[in-house]
Amino acid sequence: MMKVNGAENGKTTLQVVVEEFETSKVSGWGRRHQQCLILFCCLTTALSMRACMGVALVAMVDSHVGHIANTTQVEYNATNTTLVDNVHGSHVTVDMAEVRTNMSSIEAFLHALLLIPPYPKFQWAKKTQDIIASSFFWGYMLLQIPGGQLAHQFGARYLLTGALLINCVLCFSLPWAALYGGWILMAIFRIVQGLTQACLLPGVHTILGKWTPLEERGRLAGWAYGGSIFGTVLGLTITGFIASSPAGWPGIFRFYGILSGIVGSGMWIFGADTPAQHKSISVAERRYIEERLGVDKGKKKRPVPWGKILRCRGMWAIMSAHVGQSWGQLTFYTEVPAFMDKVMGVNIKANGVLTALPYLIMWFANFFYTWFSDMLIVKKILNVANTRKLANSIGSVLPAVGFVVLAFVPKSNIYAVEAVLIAICIFKIASNVGFHINHIDITNNYSGTLIGLSNFAANLFGSQAPIVAGLLLTDVTSEYQWRNVFYVAASFYFFTNLLYVVFGEGEKAEWDNPPEDQDRKKEDPSEMEPILKEDGATKQ
Fold first, then answer.
1. Which of 337, 344, 378, 403 is most buried as measured by Cβ atoms within 10 A of its Cβ?
2. pLDDT by residue (tens digit) across 412-429?
3. Which of 67-71, 229-233, 420-424, 503-507 is predicted least confidently?
4. Beta bridge partners of 75
5. Would you say residue 322 has pLDDT above 90?
6. How far apart are CA 172 and CA 169, in angstroms?
7. Domain at 454, CATH number
């Protein structure tokens, strides 16, 4: 490193050092990678808790239930006495005397807490199950916009930590809610979980907006958001194995409750909202990130320019693409397990494995798309806007075609069905480097607010996917009725992407930095001398 005090003109030499320092790239593992790893774990945990519900319901509900009313009827194995719950208006089929006879007082207590078998089976109609599956997203969409504002105002670290720890308690308590409160209380618990996780994407986007330079944005953000894919894999595979283990279906929710507590604690200890707030980041890496993002070093939080955001054409394009992806994704999360069970006749353990396999392959495909998008931008093959549009088209149009193909694949051929599901997932993940990180391209200061807006719209429409599927599926074993479900998902994919391609943008918005930032004078080189000396001492 060049020495400052050895030059005739200290300021001139210092300026050369500064320019050399600013253009150098901090290579190797850094704190920005650590933050993305933490975000990866947060998304893995949260998405696991969402994805597990589809398979968990298969384990919780009596497989012989046909077209019954929306009652909460519980049936214990090897019992034959019917009782009526006057509180919830539900029917409980259980010979409690026989169950308790061979149990000690401790065993009876553990059995009442659903800690030991036998575990209850619920007789819930398909529409009731769809309501439970959708209830999470009713709460999730309500606080999207406030969640983005809170992340901007107070920082994402507090919100993410709080959300995960609250989910730890709620998830652990879900089995008791289902048994003693019926499907209504279980749906309420899921709504509250959705409310607490509403700050998840705004929080993640807010942190990524402060930690990811454009040259590495696809890889870093794609790696972090890969947790949403890996979480789905975890949720669909482990759920089936836990359900078929001695822990039973109550063990599913307890596992994710414990996992959420561990990850929430990790976020609190190791997370940081900005490079400036990280205690152990090197000076070189901090400046590398801040200089490329044009970070405002002022302490004052700036108000959100709502009017300009709502008039931004690129924002509405992102919102359109987000709606299509949400509808298609929820169709996968909530309907594919039922499709595999009712049409393909796959047992619970195989259900989880076969449903998760496409997501596992999708997770590996994610690494290719993140590298490919960064390469197109860095080598200037395509500009930012066209790179995002290309990626989003791959992630929308081809999955739409896949849904249409799935509607006509012979259902007796499990390998053909699985191949189509894998193809859909391989292509759909390209949207992670399409619309999903386009918010950060437009603004790194308000990216959490923007994704809060688009995620609100996406879940407002997307949460209706299981409801619409329930209306279309009057006979859940009918191949022809499942075709209508797939047609609807394909239509959302295609037309929302078309709007994104026409109206999408990639340049940083002029309102991202206020006029005072643009008029701010350059820093005096003498003020930067202590920082450069500190960095020189670190390298030596």
1. 337
2. 777 888 888 889 989 999
3. 67-71
4. 93, 121
5. yes
6. 5
7. 1.20.1250.20
Name the band, by pLDDT with cuts 50, 70 and 90, for residue 136.
Answer: confident
Residue type, 187: A
Q: Provide the domain count of the chain.
A: 1
pLDDT tens-place string over residues 186-241: 899 999 998 888 888 888 888 888 888 878 888 888 888 888 888 877 877 788 78
Residues 194 and 139: beta-carbon distance below 8 Å: yes
What range does the domain containing 500 cover?
A: 29-94+112-282+304-511
The reply to whether 330 falls in a domain is: yes
Partnered with residue 122 across adjacent β-strands are 61, 74
Is 538 among the domain residues?
A: no
Structure tokens at 507: 């340049």
DSSP-assigned letter for residue 433: G
CA distances from 468 to 272, 292, 463 (A): 41, 45, 9
Helices (H) and strands (E) in the chain, counts: 24, 4
CA atoms of 178 and 92, how far apart (whole Å): 13
pTM higher than the cut 0.85: no
Distance of CA 168 to the CA centre of its chain: 17
- 39 assigned to some structural domain: yes
- 16: tokens are 């050369």
Any domain includes 529: no
Distance from C-alpha of 485 to C-alpha of 66, rounded to nearest angstrom: 20
Neighbours of 404 (CB within 10 A): 17
Residue 97, classified by CB atoms within 10 Å of its CB into exposed (0-12), middle (13-18) or buried (19+), is exposed
